[in-house]
Structure formats: C-alpha cells, structure tokens
Amino acid sequence: MTTTEITVKMVFDRWNGALQNWNNLLHALPDEALYTAIAPGKNRGIYLLGHLIAVHDDMRVLLDLGEKMYPELYEPFLQSPDGVTAQIPDAAALRAAWYKQCEAFSLQCGQLAAEDWFDKHTAVSAEDFAGEPHRNKLNIIITRTTHLSYHTGQLRLLK
Amino acid sequence: MTTTEITVKMVFDRWNGALQNWNNLLHALPDEALYTAIAPGKNRGIYLLGHLIAVHDDMRVLLDLGEKMYPELYEPFLQSPDGVTAQIPDAAALRAAWYKQCEAFSLQCGQLAAEDWFDKHTAVSAEDFAGEPHRNKLNIIITRTTHLSYHTGQLRLLK
Q: Could you give the CA distance from residue A157 to residue B82 in angstroms, rounded to a whole number?
C-alpha cells in the first residue's frame, strides 16, 4: 500500500465508523425520542438529523459529486435554529432522506481513486490550491467526520 | 510539500482545531458549570474533563512519548462512570492537569518528522503492522480527534 492509499483508508475508516455510530443510535431511537430536546432548551434530535443531511448535501457540492439532493433542508436546518421553521419534514421522511443520501455518497466516493482525494475541492481556486495543497477533497471528509462526531455525542443523550 | 507532509498537516490542523474548540468552551465555563450534568442524569462537565485527560494520557503511551502523566485518573474517569469514585480532583486541579498535558503533548508531537507518524503505534506488533500499515501513530490522532469532538458536543450544552 502506498502512503496515499493508507491515508485514504484511515480517513474513510474513521468517517464510516462515525457514520455507523450515528446510525446505531438513530436506529435505536424511536421517532418520539427524536422530537425530544437533547437537553433542556437545546436542539431536538430531529433538528440534528436534518442538520446533518443539509451539511452532507453541501459536501456533495464541495466534492463535485453532483447537486444537493435536498436543497429545501438548507433553510430550516442550516440557516435557522431549531423551532423557527414551522413546516419541517417528519422523522420518517428525514430518516429515509438520510439513508438515501448516505448510500449515494458511499457509492460515489467509492468510484474515486486514492490520489483523487488529494485534488482540490470546489470551493478553492486553482491559484490558492497551488500554495495550500491541504485544501483538498480528503480534508472535507476529515472536517465533516469531527462535525458528525460532535453531534453524535449530543444525540447519544436521548438514549 | 509531499503527500505525507500534507496528510500530517491536515490531521494535526483538525486535532488542534478540535482542542481549540474544547478549550474555548472550557475557558468560558465557570467551575460551577463543570459540576453540572450535561443533561439530566448524564455525566457532569468535570467527568468529561477528567475522562479526556485519562484518554490522552493513554495516547502518550500508544505514541511512545513517555509514561502517563496522571495514572491516578484512569480508575475514576475511564474505569468508572461519573459519581462512583468518592474522591476526585477538583475542577481547578483538573484544569491545570489538562493544560499541562496539552502543552507537553504538543511539544513532543512537534519533534516527530512527518514520516514518523506512519510508523506503528505501541499496541500493534511488528508482525501485524506489516499487513496492517494503517495501524500507525497518525491513526491514533485521527481516532482521538473524533473522540474529543464527541465530548465537545456534550460540554457545549453547559453553555
């Protein structure tokens, strides 16, 4: 294995492990639990789920995998705090969207070669990338893995 | 920059960013807040702090940086749940231990060359490592970064 291949394996092992931790929790929590605040006065589980879908939809664009699958979730789950948007999709709809998005993402990521992950992401210019080669696609996976873990620590409190 | 150097930079940027997020919160929370449960019936902030020190002490051993600095924290913060051990260090003592440990860790990590991070950690045999080269020192940083983020999402609830 080359250093590039080892690196991509390590980063994706952690990304997939973090997704698995989230999914194990999500699977164990009934819909009623998702409508509960993780702590008094804080976000509800349903908001965290919608928030992750919105953030991961943005990853699709940054990684040049295609368009957002659920652009309608940007406003209620990224632009607005929990409880502000009157009409949000219900738990069943968000669960279905989440799993569909995860499946598409995993399939598409699997088509990239290890070295492709060191190419620039779409939000950095070729000029800037020349001097800042760490602003690559793999870095998007690294930063979103900790984002996912941050919110998994919160969802865990509903159990 | 080589791929190895870019990789080590990305992983440490995220590790240091995650530490900064935790430290910003820790700095903003008074001691009284640390003695509060992050949610009803869940761990207190003080337990999360002691838990992180114990886990990061174990990283010192895995990365061959030296001995644990606070081995006495293993039992109350890793082996036992919150509230079980009668005598634990107070918030001021744990804050001091945390910052001292962070400083030593950062200094020692800075002395390794980028390629050293792809060497095996101390819990894997040379034999196993030959077939599983991802079980290296950098992977310890990657996995503990998500662990830190998971608990930062919880500490955040005390604010």
A: 15
What is residue B135's predicted lDDT score, i.e. its pLDDT? 98
pLDDT tens digit string along A94-131?
999 999 999 999 999 999 999 999 999 999 999 999 99
Burial of A3 (0-12, 13-18, 19+ CB in 10 A): middle
Model's pTM, two decimal places? 0.98
Question: 3-state class of B80 per DSSP?
Answer: coil
**3-class state of residue A40 by DSSP:** coil
Q: Which of B17, B39, B134 is the closest to A157 by Cβ?
A: B39
Predicted confidence (pLDDT) per residue in A15-68, tens digit = 999 999 999 999 999 999 999 999 999 999 999 999 999 999 999 999 999 999
**pLDDT of the residue at A86:** 83
CA gap A63, A55 in Å, rounded: 12
Residues of A in contact with B154 (CB under 8 A): 153-154, 156-157
Quick check: ipTM above 0.95? Answer: yes
Which positions in chain B touch A6 (Cβ < 8 Å)? Answer: 118, 133-134, 136
Q: Would you list the DSSP string of A95-139?
A: HHHHHHHHHHHHHHHTTS-GGGGGSBPTTS-HHHHHH-TTSBHHH
Among B3, B42, B157, beta carbon nearest to A3 = B3
DSSP string covering B101-132, please?
Answer: HHHHHHHHHTTS-GGGGGSB-TTS-HHHHHH-
Residues of A in contact with B118 (CB under 8 A): 3, 6
Residue A103 CB: number of other CB atoms within 10 A? 10
